[in-house]
Design brief:
alpha/beta, Metallo-beta-lactamase, Chain A, 6-stranded mixed β-sheet
Length: 211
Amino acid sequence: MIEVVTLVVGLLQANCHLICCPESREAVIVDPGDEGERIAQTLSDLQIKPTLILNTHGHGDHIGANGFLKPHFSIPIAIHREEAHALTDTEANFSRYWGEEILSPPADVTFTEGDTFTVGNHAIHVRYTPGHSPGGSSFLVDDHLITGDALFKMSIGRTDLPGCSLERLLKGIREKILTLPDETRIYPGHGPNTTVGEERRNNPFLQVFHE
């Protein structure tokens, strides 16, 4: 069974998720937004070898430790093809607007809806969930779904920034997340974990689907 270890990092308290395969002792690092040394130490403590950095989207609070972890572990960076430019553009990743200049190495791999990665013996499936950003993506592995800033516990990602779309966000949630079984566990980009069933029933932003 896959394991997901979450570290809350940076001033904006973003969730960095480590998707760990207990059989192979390999891991994929999802959204290392900051505190690269702490993330690296956690992997060392767990005796887990990272093989890939996956970014759900290119906003600065989700990519800030890419530049430390990529050379530290000699691993590639993957992001949706519509988000790749944000890794190297402080205006596109919005870090310039909160007074920082956050840059990442460029993407080694770009992906799109339906692409698959592996971590040990497990497949990670890309689900396209844009709206908070143009290429926002969620990652499904077994019955665990990492949603980035598309869907939170009792909330959804903000859509008042350039490149955002509430219509696209709700469409992605409806088609790519709410079609999953209720017991699917959700690991968001900020805040506590939840489940598909809990959000389907109680998230006030999703009640439009019941009208």
